[in-house]
Design a protein that fits this description.
Elements: H1 18-40, H2 46-58, E1 85-86, E2 92-93, E3 103-108, H3 114-131, E4 135-141, H4 150-160, E5 166-168, H5 173-178, E6 182-183, E7 185-189, E8 195-199, H6 214-223, E9 238-239
Parallel strand pairs: 3-4, 4-5
Antiparallel strand pairs: 1-2, 3-7, 6-9, 7-8
Helix pairs in contact: 1-2
């Protein structure tokens, strides 16, 4: 720490400053992620895919104690608990209701995001697999636009035949507590309800050429009492539409 009256030490020409190093690191991570994404992104998807990656990577430089790509939670942190969130049938749900499950998968999603739509069939398949493994799958929507309204959620759930609760949080608070920024964004909670994994469902945003099922592998590890080999990935998708807090004039 530099004292108030301590003179700044001159930096030799060409010596990278902490800010420069950080900028290069972010740029490198963006370039690496975009290069990897280009291998499986169909024509026309790469521009919006790159934007999603850029937002996620730049947003990952959060406060101390946060994860690599999450500004709020780190692996091993206690999972924030939601309470009395309504599903598409009007029933209320809380994390505490799932106390008898060995693991819980939380997915922040919505109706209007093309990435969220692309993941629906794979999410249904995952939920069906989890049913016989004592693992709960819960989807949560916090967007406040008409396309993501409770009425639209109900229509979507019925149309797709969702086999998992699709909850709505009008306050958007639970997404903020999880540090979720995109749809879809997944979290795997272990038996003690600590975060064991967070990020993408798998390594293919559009579901084509999936080579690694991140969430499924994390579930396997948790049920075996192990730490997932890969515990955090970049969540790629649309930005959650958080309402801005308006300051009141005095």
């Amino acid at each position: 720490m530099r004292l108030v009256n301590e003179p700044m030490r001159p930096v030799a020409e060409g010596t990278p400053t902490p800010r420069t190093v950080a900028s290069r690191t972010v740029a490198s991570r963006v370039a690496t992620s975009r290069s990897a994404a280009a291998r499986f992104a169909p024509r026309g998807m790469l521009p919006r895919l790159a934007i999603g990656i850029l937002v996620a990577v730049i947003g990952s430089s959060g406060p101390a104690g946060a994860g690599e790509y999450n500004r709020v939670l780190d692996i091993g942190d206690p999972a924030p608990a939601w309470k009395d969130l309504p599903d598409t049938k009007g029933n209320l749900h809380s994390l505490g209701d799932l106390h008898d499950h060995d693991a819980v998968v939380v997915v922040f999603t919505c109706n209007s995001c093309p990435y969220a739509v692309d993941v629906e069939d794979r999410l249904i398949s995952l939920a069906n697999e989890c049913r016989n493994r004592n693992v709960a799958v819960v989807a949560i929507n916090v967007n406040r636009v008409e396309a993501d309204s409770p009425e639209a959620m109900k229509e979507r759930a019925e149309e797709k035949g969702f086999t998992f609760p699709y909850l709505y949080d009008e306050s958007q608070q639970i997404a903020k507590e999880y540090g979720a920024t995109t749809t879809p964004e997944c979290y795997v909670l272990d038996g003690d309800r600590h975060v064991a994994y967070m990020g993408s469902l798998d390594d293919s945003p559009d579901g084509e050429n999936v080579t690694r099922r991140h969430v499924a592998k994390a579930i396997d590890a948790v049920l075996d009492g192990k730490t997932p080999e890969l515990s955090e990935t970049v969540p790629i998708g649309c930005r959650i539409r958080f309402e801005r807090d308006r300051r009141r004039r005095r």
